[in-house]
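Researcher: Here's the sequence for the chain we discussed earlier.
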Amino acid sequence: MRCKICNIKFETKYFNQKTCLNAECVLSYSKEVVLSKWQDNARKAQKPVKKTVTSVKTLLQTEVNKLARQIDKHFNYTCIDCGKEYGKQTDGAHYHNVGGNENLRYNLHNIHSARAYCNRYNTEHKKTYPQGLIDRYGQDYYDMVEFDLTKEYPVLKLNELELKAALKIVRKLNREFQTHLTGHLDGAMMRAYFNDLIGIYK
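Model: Thanks. This is the structure I predict for it:
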Protein backbone atom coordinates (compact mmCIF):
# COMPACT_ATOMS: atom_id res chain seq x y z
CA MET A 1 0.00 0.00 0.00
CA ARG A 2 1.19 3.53 -0.77
CA CYS A 3 1.07 6.44 1.65
CA LYS A 4 -1.64 9.00 0.79
CA ILE A 5 0.81 11.82 1.49
CA CYS A 6 4.35 10.82 0.42
CA ASN A 7 3.28 8.03 -1.96
CA ILE A 8 5.94 5.64 -0.56
CA LYS A 9 4.96 2.01 -0.15
CA PHE A 10 4.48 0.83 3.42
CA GLU A 11 3.28 -2.20 5.33
CA THR A 12 0.01 -1.63 7.19
CA LYS A 13 0.17 -2.04 10.95
CA TYR A 14 -3.48 -1.34 11.81
CA PHE A 15 -6.96 -1.39 10.23
CA ASN A 16 -7.78 1.27 7.62
CA GLN A 17 -4.27 2.77 7.75
CA LYS A 18 -3.92 5.39 4.98
CA THR A 19 -0.36 6.71 5.53
CA CYS A 20 3.04 5.49 6.51
CA LEU A 21 4.04 5.99 10.14
CA ASN A 22 6.07 9.12 9.39
CA ALA A 23 4.79 11.77 11.84
CA GLU A 24 4.51 14.48 9.14
CA CYS A 25 2.47 12.20 6.87
CA VAL A 26 0.12 11.18 9.68
CA LEU A 27 -0.38 14.82 10.75
CA SER A 28 -0.89 16.09 7.18
CA TYR A 29 -3.45 13.39 6.38
CA SER A 30 -5.34 14.08 9.62
CA LYS A 31 -5.54 17.78 8.72
CA GLU A 32 -6.84 16.91 5.22
CA VAL A 33 -9.57 14.69 6.65
CA VAL A 34 -10.70 17.33 9.15
CA LEU A 35 -10.66 20.07 6.49
CA SER A 36 -12.63 17.91 4.05
CA LYS A 37 -15.33 17.19 6.65
CA TRP A 38 -15.51 20.87 7.61
CA GLN A 39 -15.93 21.95 3.97
CA ASP A 40 -18.57 19.29 3.42
CA ASN A 41 -20.58 20.44 6.44
CA ALA A 42 -20.24 24.07 5.38
CA ARG A 43 -21.65 23.27 1.93
CA LYS A 44 -24.59 21.43 3.45
CA ALA A 45 -25.31 24.31 5.82
CA GLN A 46 -25.31 26.87 2.98
CA LYS A 47 -27.50 24.80 0.68
CA PRO A 48 -31.11 25.99 1.05
CA VAL A 49 -33.73 23.38 1.84
CA LYS A 50 -35.92 23.14 -1.23
CA LYS A 51 -39.64 22.86 -0.67
CA THR A 52 -41.06 19.90 -2.53
CA VAL A 53 -44.18 20.25 -4.66
CA THR A 54 -46.05 18.18 -2.08
CA SER A 55 -45.10 20.50 0.79
CA VAL A 56 -46.09 23.60 -1.22
CA LYS A 57 -49.45 21.98 -2.00
CA THR A 58 -49.99 21.38 1.71
CA LEU A 59 -49.04 24.95 2.63
CA LEU A 60 -51.37 26.34 -0.04
CA GLN A 61 -54.20 24.10 1.16
CA THR A 62 -53.73 25.34 4.73
CA GLU A 63 -53.88 28.98 3.64
CA VAL A 64 -56.95 28.48 1.41
CA ASN A 65 -58.74 26.67 4.25
CA LYS A 66 -57.88 29.59 6.53
CA LEU A 67 -59.36 32.02 4.01
CA ALA A 68 -62.57 29.97 3.82
CA ARG A 69 -62.84 30.04 7.61
CA GLN A 70 -62.30 33.82 7.66
CA ILE A 71 -65.14 34.27 5.17
CA ASP A 72 -67.55 32.20 7.25
CA LYS A 73 -66.50 33.91 10.46
CA HIS A 74 -67.14 37.33 8.89
CA PHE A 75 -70.74 36.35 8.13
CA ASN A 76 -71.19 34.65 11.52
CA TYR A 77 -71.96 31.32 9.88
CA THR A 78 -72.09 28.18 11.98
CA CYS A 79 -71.12 24.62 11.04
CA ILE A 80 -72.16 23.81 7.45
CA ASP A 81 -73.00 20.27 8.58
CA CYS A 82 -75.02 20.58 11.77
CA GLY A 83 -75.61 24.31 12.19
CA LYS A 84 -74.04 24.36 15.66
CA GLU A 85 -71.23 26.59 16.90
CA TYR A 86 -67.80 25.29 15.94
CA GLY A 87 -66.33 24.66 19.37
CA LYS A 88 -62.59 24.43 19.90
CA GLN A 89 -61.66 23.29 16.39
CA THR A 90 -62.97 24.62 13.07
CA ASP A 91 -62.14 22.70 9.90
CA GLY A 92 -62.15 23.84 6.31
CA ALA A 93 -64.39 21.01 5.13
CA HIS A 94 -64.24 20.00 1.46
CA TYR A 95 -67.53 19.11 -0.17
CA HIS A 96 -65.74 17.11 -2.87
CA ASN A 97 -62.97 15.38 -0.92
CA VAL A 98 -59.37 16.09 -1.86
CA GLY A 99 -58.46 12.44 -2.32
CA GLY A 100 -60.74 11.95 -5.31
CA ASN A 101 -61.00 15.55 -6.47
CA GLU A 102 -57.53 17.07 -6.57
CA ASN A 103 -58.86 19.49 -9.20
CA LEU A 104 -61.10 21.25 -6.65
CA ARG A 105 -58.91 21.23 -3.56
CA TYR A 106 -58.27 25.01 -3.63
CA ASN A 107 -61.69 26.16 -4.86
CA LEU A 108 -63.36 28.17 -2.10
CA HIS A 109 -66.84 27.09 -3.22
CA ASN A 110 -65.75 23.58 -2.30
CA ILE A 111 -64.57 24.55 1.20
CA HIS A 112 -66.91 25.57 4.01
CA SER A 113 -66.32 25.77 7.75
CA ALA A 114 -67.43 22.82 9.84
CA ARG A 115 -66.99 21.49 13.33
CA ALA A 116 -64.02 19.14 13.46
CA TYR A 117 -66.29 16.34 14.67
CA CYS A 118 -68.73 16.74 11.77
CA ASN A 119 -65.96 16.94 9.18
CA ARG A 120 -64.02 13.94 10.45
CA TYR A 121 -66.41 11.58 12.20
CA ASN A 122 -70.06 12.36 11.38
CA THR A 123 -71.56 9.38 9.53
CA GLU A 124 -74.30 11.65 8.12
CA HIS A 125 -71.75 14.07 6.65
CA LYS A 126 -72.71 13.32 3.03
CA LYS A 127 -76.36 14.15 3.78
CA THR A 128 -76.03 17.09 6.14
CA TYR A 129 -73.35 19.00 4.20
CA PRO A 130 -75.50 19.26 1.02
CA GLN A 131 -78.49 20.34 3.09
CA GLY A 132 -76.35 22.93 4.81
CA LEU A 133 -75.40 24.43 1.42
CA ILE A 134 -79.06 24.50 0.34
CA ASP A 135 -80.23 26.08 3.59
CA ARG A 136 -77.54 28.75 3.46
CA TYR A 137 -77.28 29.61 -0.24
CA GLY A 138 -80.18 27.95 -2.03
CA GLN A 139 -80.68 25.07 -4.46
CA ASP A 140 -78.92 26.77 -7.39
CA TYR A 141 -75.72 27.22 -5.40
CA TYR A 142 -75.81 23.62 -4.23
CA ASP A 143 -76.26 22.43 -7.83
CA MET A 144 -73.27 24.54 -8.87
CA VAL A 145 -71.07 23.00 -6.18
CA GLU A 146 -72.36 19.48 -6.74
CA PHE A 147 -72.37 19.37 -10.54
CA ASP A 148 -70.90 22.44 -12.25
CA LEU A 149 -67.57 22.68 -10.44
CA THR A 150 -66.46 19.21 -11.51
CA LYS A 151 -67.48 19.90 -15.12
CA GLU A 152 -65.89 23.35 -15.29
CA TYR A 153 -62.61 22.26 -13.70
CA PRO A 154 -62.10 18.57 -14.62
CA VAL A 155 -58.33 18.81 -14.12
CA LEU A 156 -55.94 21.09 -12.29
CA LYS A 157 -52.32 21.21 -13.39
CA LEU A 158 -50.14 23.58 -11.43
CA ASN A 159 -46.37 23.47 -11.55
CA GLU A 160 -44.20 24.40 -8.59
CA LEU A 161 -43.79 28.03 -9.63
CA GLU A 162 -47.56 28.45 -10.04
CA LEU A 163 -48.20 26.84 -6.66
CA LYS A 164 -45.70 29.18 -4.97
CA ALA A 165 -47.24 32.22 -6.70
CA ALA A 166 -50.72 31.20 -5.53
CA LEU A 167 -49.42 30.61 -2.00
CA LYS A 168 -47.97 34.12 -1.91
CA ILE A 169 -51.30 35.60 -3.04
CA VAL A 170 -53.43 33.67 -0.54
CA ARG A 171 -51.13 34.54 2.35
CA LYS A 172 -51.45 38.21 1.43
CA LEU A 173 -55.25 37.91 1.22
CA ASN A 174 -55.37 36.34 4.67
CA ARG A 175 -53.21 39.12 6.12
CA GLU A 176 -55.25 41.86 4.46
CA PHE A 177 -58.66 40.19 4.78
CA GLN A 178 -60.25 43.20 6.47
CA THR A 179 -59.58 45.38 3.42
CA HIS A 180 -61.73 43.13 1.19
CA LEU A 181 -64.99 43.13 3.14
CA THR A 182 -67.15 45.63 1.25
CA GLY A 183 -69.57 44.77 -1.53
CA HIS A 184 -70.26 41.12 -0.64
CA LEU A 185 -73.81 40.08 0.23
CA ASP A 186 -72.91 36.63 1.49
CA GLY A 187 -70.21 33.98 1.68
CA ALA A 188 -70.92 32.66 -1.81
CA MET A 189 -70.27 36.06 -3.38
CA MET A 190 -67.13 36.56 -1.32
CA ARG A 191 -65.86 33.12 -2.31
CA ALA A 192 -66.27 33.99 -5.99
CA TYR A 193 -64.43 37.26 -5.39
CA PHE A 194 -61.45 35.61 -3.69
CA ASN A 195 -61.32 32.78 -6.23
CA ASP A 196 -60.84 35.41 -8.93
CA LEU A 197 -58.07 37.15 -6.98
CA ILE A 198 -56.19 33.91 -6.37
CA GLY A 199 -56.42 33.14 -10.09
CA ILE A 200 -56.42 29.33 -10.00
CA TYR A 201 -60.09 29.05 -10.99
CA LYS A 202 -60.96 31.59 -13.66
